[in-house]
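Bumping my old thread because nobody answered last time. Still need a sequence for this structure:
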């Protein structure tokens, strides 16, 4: 008969801490890498859509990108539901990436 606190079975509190730690790791990865992917793809999309010279369009798309990345990161940690954060960030990155891919190279 095993005791509840034996080394072979972690205590329920330890399992809860592991789940919370994995959720925080997923939130951090989504905020940092997903936020970067979303920001880069949105900036690329905006630069592709703007009807000005390539250099100017790139600059005007990248300048607000810094603020956008910070806002995505802050929102990722503010939102209580991890699924909503992951869906919005990674889904937005996929949609922006598909839009950039469909538009192709700017002439």
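Sorry it took so long. Here it is:
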């Amino acid at each position: 008969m095993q005791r509840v606190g034996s080394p072979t079975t972690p205590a329920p509190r330890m399992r809860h801490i592991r789940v919370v730690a994995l959720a925080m790791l997923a939130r951090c990865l989504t905020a940092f890498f997903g936020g970067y992917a979303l920001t880069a793809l949105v900036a690329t999309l905006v630069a592709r859509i703007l009807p000005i010279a390539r250099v100017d369009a790139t600059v005007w798309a990248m300048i607000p990108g810094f603020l956008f990345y910070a806002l995505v990161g802050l929102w990722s940690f503010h939102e209580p539901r991890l699924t909503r954060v992951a869906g919005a960030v990674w889904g937005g990155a996929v949609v922006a990436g598909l839009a950039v891919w469909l538009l192709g190279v700017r002439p």
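The chain has three helices and no strands. Let me know if any region looks off to you.
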